[in-house]
Amino acid sequence: MTTLFISDLHLCEERPNISALFSRFMSEVAPGAEALYILGDLFEHWLGDDQLDHDPLARDIAAQLATLAGHGTEIFFMHGNRDFVVGPRFAREAGLTLLADPTSLTVGSDRFLLLHGDTLCTDDVAYQKFRAQVRNPAWQAVALAKPYAEREQIARSIRQRSDVEKSIKAEAIMDVNPSAVAAAFAEHQYPVMIHGHTHRPAKHEVTVDGHDCTRWVLQDWHDFGGYLAMSGPQNTLSAHLIGAAAS
Description:
Mean pLDDT: 94
CATH class: Alpha Beta
């Protein structure tokens, strides 16, 4: 059986090509998989689970996931920095289980550490302060109590501010901090690490405290669709592209 990992699709109405690529993934790649792990930023933005009442794309994505779950694939979802208020209603309608960040996964004798990845970007101090604010349950309760239209305006403002900040930040600041990576490996006893967020897909081999460690960064879905597959008795990991997104 195969286990699949994806992240950073940033699905939204403004990017129908990526939505089409996701549908292709769901019809051609995901069926028959034992499990699918979505490690954050499935959506470009999530305004609360009542987005299902306002957004046809959100309903369609939930329906596609529910169909896959109905055929026996376990689906797990970890919040990203864009969809951090995905809640129990979406989980129920999509047939998936919400995961904490980070989450430890054991398959046979192999251990894995799953993260969205933003907690590793500790050099971006301003972002880490913002993350702490929006992950606060009290802040979320106040935000979700606002009318849906107001939340849309707030989300647009946050995205615009984020785009401006990214344009002036040094690239290194927005990547993982090596010390934060080493600390995560050590804290969790040197598992294989899998995460997204940075949009820098790669396989990294590092040595931490004398241990040979592997860190996989998942493919973002900007120009291509991509996923990490784990299969076989040795739990072999391999990265795959599923094609370019048509313009």
